[in-house]
């Protein structure tokens, strides 16, 4: 068996990005985040970025075709991966299934109220990309990253109205994937309210147990 093909599911703010970064460090698996790729396209002002921005700013999903064209090549190249934010619709899940099977889909569960609290206080380092939280894990120096002293910023879609919209979009368009992966026998669930280190420990245990040859 080759390297693991992992999908992280869960509402906005469940901790997918936080966990994916830590799993990538521990396992060497490639972390592919459609949200990070899109934000990079937006900041570079590319054509894709300009098109995507209108949907992202409203809290809507970017059309499936733009997303699958953007990510499929990266997935095909990767020898094992952690998908964070993809697939997001049944159409995207089918497109993924045509490129590669998924070994394990982990749903990080978090309630709507917790999502709103967490995302309103999320901060991201402009330099190293580290994710933190001004309420739950405040930085040692206000506005600066604990890791590299870079400037912390707030995402433009992390405002209460857009956060609520993103949660509703998640419930309507992405939550059905939970059943899809359950039916495929690949679904595992983890309580997203556990401390980040404990969520990571549980994910690592699932990955190791799921792996008969003990390779990631
Ligand atoms: P994307 O960037 O994917 O956003 P999201 O799914 O809304 O997820 P988030 O990044 O908001 O949350 P997360 O689960 O990664 O949480 P995090 O680890 O940061 O997408 C943004 C937009 O791009 C979409 O709205 C859409 O427009 C577009 N898009 C992207 N992919 C697409 C696709 N496939 N199809 C179509 N459109 C697409 O943590 C959140 C906060 O909680 C942080 O402050 C963190 O420090 C804290 N935290 C994390 N874990 C814990 C814990 N265990 N306990 C306490 N606090 C914690």
The percent range for strand residues is 15-25%
Instruction: Please state the CA-atom Rg, rounded to the nearest Å.
Output: 17 Å
Strand order of the largest sheet: 2-3-1-4-8
Structure annotation, total helices: 9
State the fourth-level CATH superfamily of the domain at 5-111 and 174-209: P-loop containing nucleotide triphosphate hydrolases
The CATH architecture of the domain at 5-111 and 174-209 is 3-Layer(aba) Sandwich
List how many beta strands DSSP finds.
Answer: 8
The largest sheet, given as strand count, sense and whether it forms a barrel, is: 5 strands, parallel
The general outline is globular
- The computed structural class is alpha/beta
CATH domain class name of the domain at 5-111 and 174-209: Alpha Beta
Order of helices and strands: EHEHHHEHEHEEEHHEH
Helix content: 40-55%
Mean pLDDT comes to: 94
Distance between the termini: 9 Å
Question: Can you tell me the CATH topology of the domain at 5-111 and 174-209?
Answer: Rossmann fold
Q: Which stretches of 5+ consecutive residues score pLDDT under 50? A: none
The small-molecule ligands in this entry are: BIS(adenosine)-5'-pentaphosphate
Tell me what the structure shows:
There is one protein chain. The protein has helices spanning 16-27, 34-44, 47-58, 64-77, 90-99, 112-120, 160-174, 176-184, 196-209, and strands at residues 5-9, 30-33, 81-84, 104-109, 122-125, 131-133, 152-153, 187-191. The protein is α/β, with parallel strands linked by helices and 216 residues long. The protein has a domain at 5-111 and 174-209: P-loop containing nucleotide triphosphate hydrolases (Rossmann fold, 3-Layer(aba) Sandwich), CATH 3.40.50.300. The strands form two sheets. A five-stranded parallel β-sheet has the order 2-3-1-4-8, sandwiched between helices. The mean pLDDT is 94. Bound molecules: BIS(adenosine)-5'-pentaphosphate. BIS(adenosine)-5'-pentaphosphate is lined by residues 10, 12-18, 34-35, 38, 55-56, 59-62, 67, 85-86, 88, 92, 118-119, 122, 131-133, 136, 157, 166, 192, 194-196, 199. Residues 10, 12-18, 34-35, 38, 55-56, 59-62, 67, 85-86, 88, 92, 118-119, 122, 131-133, 136, 157, 166, 192, 194-196, 199 line the site of BIS(adenosine)-5'-pentaphosphate.
């Amino acid at each position: 068996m080759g390297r693991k093909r992992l999908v992280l599911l869960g509402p906005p703010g469940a901790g997918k990005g936080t966990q994916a970064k830590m799993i990538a460090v521990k396992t060497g698996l490639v972390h592919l985040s459609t949200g990070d790729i899109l934000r990079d396209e937006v900041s570079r002002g590319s054509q894709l970025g300009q098109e995507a921005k209108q949907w992202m700013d409203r809290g809507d999903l970017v059309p499936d075709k733009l997303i699958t064209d953007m990510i499929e090549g990266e997935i095909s190249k990767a020898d094992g991966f952690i998908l964070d934010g993809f697939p997001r619709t049944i159409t995207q899940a089918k497109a993924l299934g045509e490129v590669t099977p998924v070994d394990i889909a982990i749903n990080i569960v978090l309630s709507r109220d917790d999502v709103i609290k967490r995302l309103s206080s999320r901060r991201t380092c402009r330099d190293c990309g580290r994710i933190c939280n001004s309420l739950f894990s405040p930085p040692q120096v206000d506005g600066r990253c604990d890791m590299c002293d870079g400037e912390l910023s707030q995402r433009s879609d992390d405002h209460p109205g857009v956060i609520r919209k993103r949660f509703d979009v998640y419930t309507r368009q992405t939550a059905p994937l939970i059943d899809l992966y359950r039916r495929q026998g690949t679904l595992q669930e983890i309580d997203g309210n556990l401390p980040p280190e404990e969520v990571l420990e549980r994910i690592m245990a699932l990955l190791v147990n799921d792996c008969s040859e003990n390779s990631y």
